[in-house]
Design brief:
By secondary structure, the chain is mostly helical. The chain has 5 helices and no strands. The protein has one domain.
């Protein structure tokens, strides 16, 4: 499982130049190949969206938030705190 603190890394990658390998890996798609039968394994991008939703960060506009480092750090901190409080209650 990915932990809520891991949300800081995508913000860093999003602010990189578009030709950098980490950004290519985050936004890239395979040119060819097949997925296994049944339930395919989740891609990093799919797991990231799930984690963002759990930490109350909009998975559809996180890139806008991540462009400003201070705003991103605040959002990750607040989201992580809320996630941990909910986890402790359950």
């Amino acid at each position: 499982m990915q932990y809520a603190d891991d949300n800081a890394t995508p913000g860093h990658v999003q602010r990189m130049e578009p030709f950098r390998l980490p950004q290519i890996m985050l936004y890239g798609e395979l040119a060819n190949g097949t997925r296994p039968r049944g339930a395919p394994r989740l891609r990093y991008k799919d797991q990231l969206k799930r984690t963002l939703a759990l930490t109350n960060i909009d998975p559809f506009s996180w890139e806008q938030t991540a462009r400003d480092n201070a705003t991103w750090r605040r959002a990750v901190h607040q989201g992580t705190t809320a996630f941990e409080e909910k986890r402790k209650e359950n």
